[in-house]
Amino acid sequence: MKILITGSHGMLGTDLTNLLRKKMTSPIPDEGLKVIDAPHEVLDITLEDEVSNFILKHTPDIIINCAAFTNVDKCETEREMAFKVNALGPKYIAAAAKECGARVIHISTDFVFDGNSNRPYVEEDQTNPLSEYGRTKLEGEKNIQKHCNTFLILRASWLFGHHGTNFVEKMFELAKHDKELSIVHDERGSPTYTVDLTEALWTLIKQKYEGIVHVTNEGNCSRYEWANKIFEILGYNINIHPIESSQYKRPAKVPLNSSLNCQKFTTITGIQMRPWEEALKDYLLSL
Ligand SMILES: NC(=O)c1ccc[n+]([C@@H]2O[C@H](COP(=O)([O-])OP(=O)(O)OC[C@H]3O[C@@H](n4cnc5c(N)ncnc54)[C@H](OP(=O)(O)O)[C@@H]3O)[C@@H](O)[C@H]2O)c1
Questions:
Q1: Beta partners for residue 152, in sequence order
Q2: Is 35 helix (H, G, I), strand (E, B) or coil?
Q3: 3-state SS, residue 189
Q4: How far apart are CA 79 and CA 86, in angstroms?
Q5: Are 153 and 106 in contact (CB under 8 A)?
Q6: What residues are paired with 230 via a beta bridge?
Q7: pLDDT tens, residue order, the chain (287 aa)
Q8: What is the 67 CA–ligand 1 centroid distance (Å)?
Q9: Any atom of ligand 1 within 6 Å of the Cβ of 46
Q10: Ligand 1 close to Cβ of residue 214 (< 6 A)
Q11: What is the atom index within ligand 1 of the atom nearest the CA of 110?
């Protein structure tokens, strides 16, 4: 099984590449597993001919697209680039995959929803993105569905990990200088550790599941609750003031409740993702 990973130096891409390399070299290696990592500097997914040539040259069995323009606020001002990376890139990947018979695994986001639901979103719920990031990611999903034969779209949310900027790291940095913080309390989601997500993804790969699946760590919280848990685990004495999202001005409009229901993932795999608090503890203790 030859697996090509785009955006392989990003937060999720790095953990995924590391996991698959570990599987290749473990005492009981996964037979025939080969990883081709394609970071941004090796493959720019917005260049149609390069994407096609690269994929047809390597003829992977599976392409995992971890490349994306993920700065949600910047997507508002750099709309053309956001569209190229998040919508057109997946289209080029899908078309080349179809040509060489590869399966595509595309990573998407909770931000395809508008956040007005009073329960966690299931895969079949109506999408209605509020931001350019969400809109371009949704276009990417549609392009994958339209242009390739076999695909898995994995929607994740609120990622944290060792290899990229994320909320946990930001809290950690802020706490070095500020003992008082104001954090939004009316925005809810499911924090998800990239290490856990890559293990879940590997299970889905082996099961050859096709379609759309939500995968996050179990449970959900507000940003305020998340920050409190971070400092509780770290043993930091930080005074956190809950504020409304309307008081936190930012260019992009974000969903208020973007937590995802992962029952479908559990039904397919028999796996229950561990609670986000446990994953967070592991992550913080490994820093
Ligand atoms: N982070 C989250 O909270 C979150 C939540 C839900 C879903 N997701 C989804 O999860 C996936 C992985 O996200 P992440 O957090 O790992 O993001 P990330 O750390 O920003 O990684 C994205 C990678 O894509 C690369 N990239 C950007 N433009 C590219 C291009 N034109 N061609 C090739 N590569 C390009 C980036 O390279 P450069 O750094 O060189 O630009 C980076 O290495 C994305 O699909 C994202 O939408 C993320």
A1: 105, 211
A2: strand
A3: strand
A4: 10
A5: yes
A6: none
A7: 999 999 999 999 999 999 999 988 877 777 689 999 999 999 999 999 999 999 999 999 999 999 999 999 999 999 999 999 999 999 999 999 999 999 999 999 999 999 999 999 999 999 999 999 999 999 999 999 999 999 999 999 999 999 999 999 999 999 999 889 999 999 999 999 999 999 999 999 999 999 999 999 999 999 999 999 999 999 999 999 999 999 999 999 999 999 999 999 999 999 999 999 999 999 999 98
A8: 5
A9: yes
A10: no
A11: 6
User: Domains of the chain by range and CATH?
Assistant: 2-166+190-219+259-274 (3.40.50.720)
> Do 175 and 232 form a contact (C-beta atoms < 8 A)?
no
**What tokens does 78 get?**
């750099």
Ligand 1 neighbourhood includes 9 CB (under 6 angstroms): yes
Interval between CA 164 and ligand 1 midpoint (Å): 9
Q: From the CB of residue 69, how many other CB atoms can be counted at a distance below 10 Å?
A: 21
